[in-house]
């Protein structure tokens, strides 16, 4: 079994732009083995975004500006990886059949559905954060980022790959134990933000609905589907935390 630190570094390499690749051995563990650490990546990304939120609030910027700057910081840390997946998946959903949908999702250009999905993602998350006090917003960013990435691990475990090649096939499938550990880490990260049950319910429901849609339209998961799963989960969790 690979060292947990190596597995966590593997998750960081895959899901962020942080320069931690030098910590990995020549043959790093498969992504599935690192799936339990996806929520830890969320904690790192959420903390970075939360720091920007706190600094912006300390400068007296309007709540919406603080929220947008925090989201921009999170996207800088991840290279907008998950936002890109959401846009590609949304564009693919506009296709009439599975083969065409998968073809569209491989196109680097963004279409109208993808553009609308990105606007909604940024707008809803920013509105939720702007409704929270800065300190609560920091905790919400960390909790929602962790929880939404636990859902990515679950989708990777329970959805079959939609393509014979690509990330979905090459990543492998996490064990149930890895998914459970990830969910536990995410729940612990969410506790300081409060509203644990509403956030868990909202995030889980949104991610389950998207996973069902991906299974029906595509036959399973791809890297873009995993990114979309993360995004809808984070949106739902932040909205639930803002509402409670």
TrEMBL record:
It is an enzyme of class 2 (transferase). It is a multi-pass membrane protein. It catalyses: alpha-ribazole + adenosylcob(III)inamide-GDP = adenosylcob(III)alamin + GMP + H(+); alpha-ribazole 5'-phosphate + adenosylcob(III)inamide-GDP = adenosylcob(III)alamin 5'-phosphate + GMP + H(+). GO terms for molecular function: adenosylcobinamide-GDP ribazoletransferase activity; cobalamin 5'-phosphate synthase activity. Pathway: Cofactor biosynthesis; adenosylcobalamin biosynthesis; adenosylcobalamin from cob(II)yrinate a,c-diamide: step 7/7. One of its GO terms (cellular component) is plasma membrane. The chain crosses the membrane at residues 33-57, 64-82, 110-131, 138-159, 179-210. Pfam families: CobS (PF02654). Its cofactor is Mg(2+). Belongs to the CobS family. NCBIfam families: cobS. This is Adenosylcobinamide-GDP ribazoletransferase. It comes from Paracoccus yeei.
